[in-house]
Structure formats: C-alpha cells, structure tokens
Amino acid sequence: MTARTTGTTIFSGGITDNDGRPKLAYAAVNQLMTELDRARYVGTWDTGDPNVAVQVFLNDGKPVVVAWKKVDHKDDPAVKPPTSAIGLPFAAAGAKVMDINGVELPATAGSAGLQLVVSGAPLYVTGGAGRVRLRIRCAACCRSRSRKRSPSWR
C-alpha cells in the first residue's frame, strides 16, 4: 500500500522517494548496516541512567557499542533534558566515535574512561585500547553479570 504526499511514496520503511532519491533516514540506515554488518548482539550495558540505552555487539570479534538517549519529541526539556553525559569504561585513545550519519566525532577522555554526550540519535563506538570490564545484561540468559572481555580494540 502506498500513499502519495508531495512527491514521496511512503512504503513501510521506505528510504527513497518516487524518483529514487534518498530520504533523510537513508544515511542513518546505511550507518547502522555498515557498523553492525555481521555483528552478534552481546547485551545491554547499564549506565545507571534508565533514560540512556547502550547496546553491545561483537563484529568480527571486535566490540561495537551503540549508545543513545531515550527521548521523545513530546518530552519537556526542562523535565527531561534531550542529552546526557555518560562514561564508558575504556580508553578514549584509539576509540572511534561516529554519529548517526557516519561523521566521526572526537573521542573525549574523562575520569571514567571515554566520555560521550548522547541524544536521541545513536552514537557508534569502535576501537579503544586495553581490557574492558562491562556489566551487561546477557542477551542469551537475561541475567546481569560481569564479563571480562579482552577483544582487539583496534
């Protein structure tokens, strides 16, 4: 089923218009597919903030962390700010932070490791150095437990 609105055919999940031109979501879908191609879901990392989601994947044995703030356009920014600062427990050195459109952002070091400011648009984090201990909710068994990972963070 399609609907015609100002030259755009809306398919269920379509990311191009009638003429094949990409919609705004096109770059975001491309970034998602690029970063998580062949990735295996590991689990959810708990930031301590219920309004922030951090999902952990392994892609060819290398971790990919996806983080965003759970926001809605109807939220009152005075009550629920549109961004949150979080720290991930690995070094900023060598970390690669990409936004929803695949634009690389600076990796900022903080006292807790890599510092990120997350919004409603996901950030993808790869790279980094050293061993990492993440407290995740395991995808397979849905129990929270600490896992020591020593992937190649290159």
Describe the structure.
This protein has 154 residues and is mainly β. The chain has a single domain (20-149), classed as Sandwich (Immunoglobulin-like), CATH 2.60.40. Helices cover 7% and strands 42% of the residues. The protein is built from one helix and 13 strands. The protein has one helix at residues 25-35; strands at residues 4-5, 8-9, 40-45, 52-59, 62-69, 84-88, 95-98, 104-105, 108-110, 113-118, 123-127, 132-138, 144-149. The strands form three sheets. Strands 8-7-11-5-4-3-12-13 form an eight-stranded antiparallel sheet, with no helix packed on it. A hairpin with a 2-residue loop joins strand 1 (4-5) and strand 2 (8-9). The chain is globular, with a radius of gyration of 17 Å.
Quick tags:
154 residues; 3-stranded antiparallel β-sheet; 42% strand; disordered C terminus; 8-stranded antiparallel β-sheet; mainly beta; globular; 1 helix; 13 strands; Immunoglobulin-like
